User: Which sequence fits this backbone?
């Protein structure tokens, strides 16, 4: 699977923020982490020139580089970055690098500038008006990244794709969402993602609009759509939440949920249940099972805003959950 299919840890949708930049003369730094794709309109001039949907610094007349620091909305292991120079043609930076750091608490911009930074992407060549993808092999957990451009110019978006690694000190391991992206769960497979990514299904917070959920194409056969999820760690599910919010004429008619444990054998937690459009459904689990994976089946197709699997970690799951965090600290 391409690293670009992993969630964008820096996205504003997940709580990311651009906390500092040394320059943003032509275009605001906050544009770097917008969830939406960049757009461009010709002859849209402000008092500083053409308006760009990105981060753009002034032309340098001295030695140096420009930098921006981003707090990751979901701290984790970075699998790859995309430096998107969309619509920047004669004003894109020829090179860029990315560093990471892991900082406790809530540091100020000044404290972050002085932090210990580790190179995750060395100085690399960029192309203009292009999504420039770069794989990252570092396996440590980072809370912030710093983008450096050489020497100046414009970047439309910075995508930081990876795997979230939750801090267990801030979670109740006896009651948590085992399928939550921010807790370390991830999508293992999906039948269809025509309209939107299945990562949305397990994203933090409620969906604000239909586009922030998972939606499949219309089926013209006798099958059904599904998503398979690797849980944050081995646990026992007690409550299932199926949220069809915002899906009104395109919600699934029915859904079921199954889980598999370490042995790989599947058990049904929720038999095929009728769903209502634009509704948050809650189902108690009558016969809990130890689980490491879960599968949501929707019948026959449609859109789901969120899937939540509330439960507790087993003893082995708790050990794995904590060690995954400890082993990835810089």
Assistant:
């Amino acid at each position: 699977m391409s690293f670009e299919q992993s969630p964008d840890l820096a996205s504003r949708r997940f709580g990311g923020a651009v906390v500092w930049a040394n320059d943003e003369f032509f275009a605001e730094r906050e544009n770097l982490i917008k969830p939406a794709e960049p757009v461009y309109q010709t002859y849209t001039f402000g008092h500083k020139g053409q308006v760009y949907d990105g981060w753009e610094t002034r032309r340098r007349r001295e030695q140096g580089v420009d930098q921006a620091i981003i707090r990751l909305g979901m701290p984790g292991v970075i699998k790859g970055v995309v430096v998107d120079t969309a619509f920047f043609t004669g004003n894109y930076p020829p090179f860029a690098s990315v560093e990471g750091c892991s900082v406790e608490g809530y540091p100020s911009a000044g404290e972050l500038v002085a932090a210990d930074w580790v190179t995750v992407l060395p100085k690399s060549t960029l192309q203009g008006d292009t999504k420039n993808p770069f794989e990252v092999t570092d396996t440590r957990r980072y809370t912030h990244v710093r983008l450096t451009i050489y020497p100046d110019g414009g970047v439309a978006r910075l995508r930081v794709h990876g795997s979230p690694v939750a801090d267990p000190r801030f979670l109740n391991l006896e009651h948590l969402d085992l399928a939550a992206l921010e807790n370390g769960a991830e999508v293992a497979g999906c039948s269809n993602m025509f309209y939107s990514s299945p990562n949305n299904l397990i994203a933090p917070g409620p969906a604000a609009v239909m586009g922030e959920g998972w939606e499949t194409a219309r089926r013209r056969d006798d099958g059904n759509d599904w998503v398979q999820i690797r849980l944050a760690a081995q646990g026992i599910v007690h409550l299932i939440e199926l949220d069809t919010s915002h899906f009104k004429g395109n919600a699934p008619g029915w859904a079921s949920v199954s889980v598999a444990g370490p042995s790989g054998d599947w058990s049904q937690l929720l038999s095929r249940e009728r769903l209502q459009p634009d509704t948050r459904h809650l189902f108690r689990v009558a016969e809990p099972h130890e689980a490491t994976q879960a599968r949501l089946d929707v019948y026959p197709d449609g859109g789901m805003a969120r899937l939540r699997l509330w439960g507790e970690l087993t003893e082995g799951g708790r050990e794995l959950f904590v060690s995954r965090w400890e082993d990835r600290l810089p």
Helices lie at 109-113, 315-326.
